[in-house]
Each structure stands twice: as structure tokens, then as C-alpha cells.
Amino acid sequence: RECTVNLRDLHYLIALADHKHFGRAASASFVSQPTLSTQIKKLEEELGVALVERAPRKVLLTEVGREIAQRARDVLNEVEQIRAIARRTRDPESGTVRLGIFPTLGPYLLPHVIPAIRARFPRLELLLTEEKTEVVLKQLREGRLDAGILALPIHDEQLQQEFLFEESFVLAVPEGHPLAAHASLKLADLAEQNLLLLEDGHCLRDQALEVCQLSGAGERGGFRATSLETLRQMVAAGVGITLLPALAVKPPVAPSADIHLLPFRGHAPSRRIAMVWRKSSAIAPFLKHLAGVFKELPHALLEVPAPRAGGGDPAPAARV
User: Alpha-carbon distance 167 to 183, whole Å?
Assistant: First the structure.
């Protein structure tokens, strides 16, 4: 005989597991006690096992009853996820979007964009995850994230890529460093310099290494930072020099009196930022609208600081 289990009866079993009392379980389920008791008996008959030990003053679940109740929680949670997906597909602006972003961009970009997202989509719940690029991509492929804000290039045919903006880099040097006398730099000025870089796994490390390759610079040995803020503090302490993205040197980030920022001219290094999501995503059209808010970022935020007098303006940024 085919076994058919009613989701409502699973709710009743879980309520009984939680309250260990038919009356309280029935009240929590908004049904009468006889109704709940009858449905539990029907569930036992359907499954062919005893789920409940009925005692005069309290109710205990049998061992199999406890196991089935635990599985029932998982089943009902999955059902709720299915319903949430359906609701989000019908009206994505009132749903939840799980967005991943890498740590050398998130703290500097999001304060400028979140207010605009809230204004445009007031009913949207945005859940943010800050992880390195490979973790964001993994969670995106597994369906644990809906979209990611990442640096290009990304090589995955299953992902839709929507270009958002290009962000230039500046060179951060201590005030006493010889390069601090320059108003602006060419990439060639970095030749023979050794830069402080992030640890493996950060896309900014890969971008900085590409700059080093193009300019003839190298990596400062014996040190790899875990965050952009560590790099900033090391420069302020006079340990070395590094590359910083433009958003990381703009308000609300406070300037440091011990760091001099040098823009590049000519073929200035930069990174290209995109929003990515699965091509099969049910909310792909909405994610494209959401990407549009990120595209509206004021251009001034992406511009490098103006050079000091006498150095000439840096040319528009070019990709690394």
C-alpha cells in the first residue's frame, strides 16, 4: 500500500514533540485537542508504527517518533524554501536576495549603494555574505547565493555577467618615501619597487601581481596581509608601499596623514567589477534591475585623487 503523509499532520507531530502535551500542542496548532489526537493516530496508522507514548500527565515520543519528527522538521523547512522561491519569483522585490561580495570591495562599495537599493526596492531583504572570490563562486554554483559582486574576468559559462564599473588604483606610500615627491606616476616608475600584497585567495593580490609584472615591480618578501586595512596600516607605519583601489580611499574612509596617495597617468591600473548570477536563476530579470542600481554609482567615487600641482592630470584609467 502506498504511504501518503499529509504535511499538516507533520506539523502536528512537531508540535507534540515540542510541547509534550496534546492540549498545548493543539493550542499551538490552532486546532482542537480531539482533532490533533485523531490526526496523530491516522499518521501512526499510515506509517504503521507507534509515534507517541501516551501517559496520564504527559506525552513522550517513541524513539522512531523522535526520529520522524526531526526528519519532519527538515521536510517542512524544505517546503517553506520552495514556497519562498515561488513567492520570490512572483514578486522578487518583496523577497530575499543573497548577495556575495569580496572583502576588498564590500566595505567600501556597499555604504554608497545600500541606501539607493533600499529606496528603489523598499520591500527587498538583502542578505550579504563577504568572502573571497572562490568561496563566492562556489556558493553561487551551489545555489547558496543568488548573485555575487566580483572582479572580472570570470570564466564560467553557467554564469551571467553584468559589467558594473571600472575602478582605478592609486599607489599608497609613506610620506617619507622617495616616490612621495612625485605628483603622479607612470607604471614604469614602479620598476625595482617591492609592494606589500595581500595573502593568497584575494583577487586584489592577483591584480597587484599583474601590475608588478607589467611595471617590473616585485613583492615585498616576508609579509602578506590578511586585509586591505592591514596593508593601509603597514604603509602608514612606513613598512612599505602598496596599491589601493579608489573606493578604499574615499569617504567614509578617513584619510591618513601618514600616507601619500599617488595617481597614475597613461595606462593606469584598474579593476573591472561585475555582478554575476546563474543563467538558470528564476529571478534573473530582477537581478539585472538590481545591477542597474550598482551601475548608478557616482563617477566621482571611482576617480583617483587629483595629483598635486605641477604633475599634470592622470589619463583615464586603463585595464591592467
Answer: 20
Set of cell numbers at residue 311 = 604633475
The angle, 0 to 180 degrees and rounded to 10, between the axes of the packed helices 7-19 and 33-47 is 110
pLDDT of residue 314: 40
| Ranges of H-type helices in the chain | 7-19, 22-28, 33-47, 63-90, 106-120, 133-141, 203-215, 228-236, 284-295, 299-302
For residue range 217-272, list pLDDT tens digits in order: 777 766 777 788 888 898 888 888 888 898 988 888 877 888 888 898 877 788 89
Residue whose C-alpha is closest to residue 269's, from 296, 243, 248:
243
Residue 104 φ/ψ, nearest 5 degrees: -85, 5
The beta strand positions in 82-199, using DSSP E, are 96-101, 125-130, 147-151, 159-174, 194-198
Given a contact cutoff of 8 angstroms between Cβ atoms, the answer to whether 228 and 204 are in contact is yes
